[in-house]
Amino acid sequence: MKHLHPIPTPLALAAAALLSCGLAAPAAAQSNDELLRELRALKDRVNQLEQQLQAGKTASPATAAPAGQWGMTPEQSQELSRVATKAEALEDSRDESGFKGLKVSGYMDPTFIIDRNQNRAGFQFLSGVGDDGYGYANSTFGAVALDFTKETDSGTRWRLTLVPDRGTQAIMSGANRLVHEASVSVPIDGDDTTRLLAGHVPDWSGYEYAQPTLNKLITHNLLFDFTLPTAYTGAGLELSRGNWVLKGMLANMNSAIKASGERAPVFAWRADHEINEFSGYGMAGLHGKAANFSENLDDGTGTGTAAALPNSRVDLIEIDGWYTRGDLTLNGQISWGRQSRAAIGTATGAMVFDAADLRDAEWKGVSALVAYKLSPRLEGVVRGDALFNKKNGGGLLGYTSSDEVNGIGPELIGRDANGDLIIGSDPQAGVNRYALSFGLNYAVDPSVMFKTEVRFDSASKTVFENVKSNTFVKTNRLFATSLVVSF
After folding, report:
1. Residue range of the domain that includes 273
2. Taking the model in full, what pTM does it have?
3. How does pLDDT run across 34-88, given as a tens digit for each residue?
4. Is the same domain home to 444 and 375?
5. Which residue stretches belong to region Disordered (predicted)?
6. Positive or negative torsion for Cα 19, 25, 28, 34
7. In CATH, what number is assigned to the domain containing residue 161?
8. 229 and 374 belong to one structural domain
9. How far apart are the C-alpha atoms of 178 and 148, rounded to whole Å?
10. Is 439 inside any structural domain?
11. Which of 204, 224, 146 is CA-nearest to residue 179?
12. What is the pLDDT of residues 80-133, one digit of tens each?
């Protein structure tokens, strides 16, 4: 049983003080002065102890705590409660409206182009791909885009990117369309390392992208424009394993729906490996059947008006790499591709021919880019490309006839009285293509970039048409500027 201890009295405190001051010794041994000094010290000590005792009696938790909560006044505490209630209401409203996990972004890049061979100088912005055909001087720049992405609580990602007239859907169909990407990514395991992909997905090959906010230059390299698919419509998987990201799809290539009688999809894949925070490499490929655009087939009337060919076998493989550290950026890519019965040259060399005369198109290419920041805002860029396409009169993915604007096919020497192209002495040999670009980028602020580019294109034989002089030449020059604004 515990005993209650009485509260100390002043007398008891004095006795304790006497003991502590050594007064237990006989008083006779001290002089009167010494005794007085000790009594005064004892009095001071008693007063000090009484003050401490009184403070202990009057103190309580209610009076010891500061007024208000966490040092706030009652008014401030009430205001905090009101703010917290409003924040909770806003979160509930956001969740009920479907805005949780939603991100909206976009860009536009009005572009000015001077094209020597086409005798054209002016702005290009929101011009449909079908207006002048897809080409290196009329690529995915000069566009406006609005991108919606949303991730649900379960980890499902939903994406819709709208790019009027200049997106993948417009390039595929040649008509004015809006959708650039419409895809979903659904986790199918607990740790988010395996995901289901489905929908309309832009091609993922190479080191360049369609959107100008991710590219150093205005135009694209030769491999991006002429050897890679535009988009896939289908379904597949994405796997994340350590430093590797793997993805593959069974899909239609450059087609939203298969034509009657067409049943075989393509298999498109990509693998990326991050070596460290500064560098990495990737590989991509495609295998299967895709549209064959060979023209001038003889339907038996000699007019070259036969129906389109069925899809033919396509095989594509490319390897790309990147290095970015400090002010320096390096990118590189090599590609190989083949499509059966899609070459420009034929076994007979005739411009109107039977399907039996068709031969395989095959090509190889390389591209490299170097960029260096001359100052925190100013960056210099150099890119060089080479595309080897001589086999069977040339022919690239989607380019199965001579193209005097982009420089594809065998040598061209003029036009006949009907305006048709005249092939040179060897219709069985296509031309090799080269391009060299120099550019400067100036970052006005984090969301505004001003770009300039000077580009030189050439070919091993005369294959570009100079519309002003009505001649065919080996080279072309291009100057471009654009203002890229994003949010």
Report:
1. 92-486
2. 0.81
3. 666 766 776 676 666 666 666 655 554 444 445 455 567 888 788 888 888 888 8
4. yes
5. 52-78
6. negative
7. 2.40.160.10
8. yes
9. 13
10. yes
11. 146
12. 888 888 888 888 887 777 888 999 999 999 999 999 999 999 999 998 877 788
Token reading at 80:
């905090």
Residue with tokens 């001589």: 390
* Residue 18 shares a structural domain with residue 139: no
436 located within any domain: yes
Q: Is 474 part of any domain?
A: yes
Number of neighbours of residue 4 by Cβ within 10 angstroms: 5
Considering the domain architecture, whether residues 53 and 117 belong to the same structural domain is answered as: no
Nearest to 167 by CA among 148, 181, 147: 181
Provide the domain count of the chain.
Answer: 2
What CA–CA distance (Å, rounded) separates 150 from 147? 10
Q: Are residues 97 and 206 in the same domain?
A: yes
The answer to whether 104 and 158 have CB atoms below 8 angstroms apart is no
List, for residues 374-412, the tens digit of each pLDDT value. 999 999 999 999 999 999 999 999 999 899 999 999 999
Tokens matching residue 3: 């005993």
Rounded Cα distance, 335 and 385, in Å:
11
Looking at the fold, whether 116 and 43 belong to one and the same domain comes out as: no
Same domain, yes or no, for 172 and 307? yes
How would you write the chain as a 3-class SS string?
Answer: CCCCCCCCCHHHHHHHHHHHHCCCCCHHHCCHHHHHHHHHHHHHHHHHHHHHHHHHHHCCHHHHCCCCCCCCCHHHHHHHHHHHHHHHHHHHHHHHHCCCCEEEEEEECCEEEEECCCCEEEEECCCCHHHHCCECCECCCCCEEEEEEEECCCCCEEEEEECCCCCHHHHHHCCCCCEEEEEEEEECCCCCCEEEEEEEEECCCCCCCCCHHHCCCCCCCHHHHHCCCCEEEEEEEEEEECCEEEEEEEEEECCCCCCCCCCCCEEEEEEEEECCCCEEEEEEEEEEEECCCCCCECCCCCCCCCCCCCCEEEEEEEEEEEEEECCEEEEEEEEEEEECCCCCCECCCCCCECHHHECCEEEEEEEEEEEEECCCCEEEEEEEEEEECCHHHCCECCECCCECCCCECECEEEECCCCCEEECCCCCCECCEEEEEEEEEEEEECCEEEEEEEEEEEECCCCEEECCCCEEECEEEEEEEEEEEEC
In a domain, 74, yes or no: no
373, amino acid identity: K
